[in-house]
Write a structure and sequence with these properties.
The structure holds two protein chains of two kinds. Chain A is an all-beta fold. Chain A contains no helices and twelve strands. In chain A, strands 2, 5, 6, 10, 11 and 12 form a six-stranded mixed beta sheet that branches. In chain B, strands 2, 4, 5, 6, 9, 10 and 11 form a seven-stranded mixed beta sheet that branches. A four-stranded antiparallel beta sheet of chain B has the order 1-3-8-7, with no helix packed on it. In chain B, strand 4 and strand 5 form a beta hairpin. The chains are: A mainly beta, B mainly beta. Chains A and B meet through strand 5, strand 6, strand 10 and strand 11 of A and strand 5, strand 9 and strand 10 of B.
């Protein structure tokens, strides 16, 4: 079974600085996908970025990028130039591609951006 | 078009009553998920469907919980004989493709906040 670990329950970052949110995963399947979602205090779940296990390059979407280290089974989210609106919970999630397997979420990291 | 719609937004019920939570996914979406989320925690998988087929129900806590999606569109999560520990946010999510078929992310509804008194 797949598993996601996010070891940082809470993080603080100064506005305009970069921050890295950790995500490690456990799967025995070679073909899988990883998502990151943002959940602000309003409660909505916002999709940020996707990384496939066979993708040759690290995914990037605007100020979001993924530091994907397949051998270490880590997929850390990097947010550059933090903004106050980045304050939220961030969740990493995994699914396996080769079977009808479910999307599993990690426990999340709470990010607070300090002005 | 419209996003994933869940109803009711809030449900307060007394212990022992049955409740039915509804999810209307984005039109044409194949995959439909149910999650439960406690405050400050990640979504906890309950069950999911591809079309009308329930692919995995391993996350349902016990036999008081059931879900259906008879026509491959709207889904209902039913909790029988509710208990206080069932109080949580229940979220539905849908995707245009079966899980694993592509990199399509899940689109989430705003959830139903269930309170069992």
């Amino acid at each position: 079974a797949q598993k996601i670990t996010q070891t940082q329950p809470g993080m603080f970052v100064q506005e305009k600085e970069a921050v890295t949110l950790d995500c490690t995963y456990d799967t025995s399947d070679p073909s899988y996908g990883l998502f990151w979602y943002k959940q602000p205090s309003s409660g909505e779940m916002i999709f940020l970025i996707y990384q496939g296990s066979y993708d040759q390059q690290n995914a990037t979407e605007g100020r979001y990028s993924l530091n994907f280290q397949k051998a270490r089974k880590s997929a850390n989210l990097v947010i550059s130039a933090s903004q106050l609106g980045d304050s939220a919970m961030y969740f990493c999630a995994i699914f396996v591609k080769t079977s009808y397997d479910k999307v599993i979420f990690g426990p999340g990291t709470s990010l607070s951006v300090i002005p | 078009g419209a996003g994933v719609s869940q109803s009711p937004r809030y449900k307060v019920t007394k212990r022992g009553q049955d409740v039915a939570l509804r999810c209307d996914p984005i039109s044409g979406h194949v995959s439909l998920y149910w999650y439960r989320q406690a405050l400050g925690q990640g979504p906890e998988f309950l069950t999911y469907f591809n079309y009308e087929a329930q692919q995995d129900k391993s996350g349902l806590p016990n036999d008081r919980f059931s879900a259906e999606r008879p026509e491959g569109s709207i889904s209902t999560l039913t909790i029988q004989r509710t208990e206080q520990r069932d109080s949580a946010m229940y979220r539905c999510a849908s995707s245009p493709t079966p899980t694993g078929a592509s990199n399509s992310p899940l689109h989430f509804g705003n959830g139903t906040r269930l309170t069992v008194t």
